[in-house]
Write a structure and sequence with these properties.
Elements (H helix, E strand, L loop, with lengths): L16 E6 L24 H12 L5 E5 L4 E2 L8 E6 L3 E7 L9 E8 L2 E6 L6 E3 L4 H4 L5 H9 L22 H9 L21 E2 L7 E2 L29 H22 L1
Parallel strand pairs: 1-5
Antiparallel strand pairs: 2-3, 2-6, 4-5, 6-7, 7-8, 9-10
């Protein structure tokens, strides 16, 4: 077991396959080969899937950019935390890769390409082409039984919670007084027997149709009277009383008259 990928640099040129490496220093021994051609080292991936992966990697048509942490790989999809078959150096591969020496705060970024359930991870710090596993929605939810629940609902033999009523004639309801009056008021008299109405007037003592299904007792004719409404009383308008002049006003008036008389007298003299 090697302590670091850096220690495996000596065997990189020979194309060694190492059983285990500790990826404690990302970027120290980056992959120096062809990133796209490195996918052909994964012979367990079907040839058609490898061809699609290589075509997408050539165009950088990746699924998403994920965050690589010590104990997880986080993205929009759910991924397993394991990284395996990592390329490094010129032409070497590590079967399993450990990130146990990373701190909890340390993070790296990586591009993910997936085809037919086979996912390739290319860390941006060192281009070390690797493989990761994308979890299915059922596995990511911890073995949820959502799919089985949908199958049970879709099963035609499973009875519904509420069964439809059995076929047959609809029961005939006896019209109540309230319904009878409503039928006459709406003009829908088809098939209605007026003799079923209760008597009205002074001889009828039972409840009469009311509002909202509430029975209102009927009154004999002439019992309910509406009092006349008197016109509103308008108070009379008081007469307008002219204002009384103030004493100062009388004094000015008298002074004016005296001045006019004095001037007229002088003109006569």
């Amino acid at each position: 077991m090697l302590a670091s990928i850096a220690f495996a640099a000596a065997g990189a040129a020979s194309g060694n396959v190492l059983p285990h490496c500790s990826w404690d220093k990302p970027g120290v021994n980056p992959f120096m080969g062809d990133v796209v051609a490195a996918v052909d080292r994964y012979q367990d991936i079907p040839a058609a899937a490898r061809a699609r992966l290589k075509a997408r990697m050539l165009k950088r048509d990746y699924d998403e950019l994920v965050t690589i942490q010590r104990d997880a790989i986080k993205g929009q999809a759910q991924y397993g935390s394991e990284i395996r078959d990592m390329h490094f150096g010129a032409n070497s591969v590590c079967k399993t890769v450990s990130r146990a020496k990373w701190t909890q705060q340390y993070e790296e970024r990586g591009l993910v390409y997936c085809e037919d359930g086979q996912c390739i991870l290319v860390p941006t710090v060192c281009r070390n082409v690797s493989r990761i596993q994308r979890m299915s929605p059922k596995a990511a939810a911890g073995g949820s039984t959502v799919a089985s629940a949908h199958q049970e609902i879709a099963d035609p033999q499973t009875p519904l919670e509420i069964d439809p009523p059995a076929a047959g004639p609809m029961p005939t309801a006896t019209p109540s007084p309230a319904n009878s009056f409503s039928q006459i008021a709406s003009g829908n008299n088809e098939g209605f027997d007026i003799s079923s109405l209760p008597p009205t007037g002074a001889g009828f003592t039972g409840p009469s149709p009311g509002f909202g299904g509430i029975a209102v007792p009927s009154l004999p004719p002439g019992t309910l009277t509406v009092p006349p409404v008197d016109p509103p009383v308008v108070p009379p308008v008081p007469p307008v009383v002219p204002g009384i002049p103030e004493p100062g006003t009388w004094a000015m008036l008298m002074a004016g008259l005296l001045a006019v008389g004095f001037v007229a007298r002088r003109r006569r003299i």
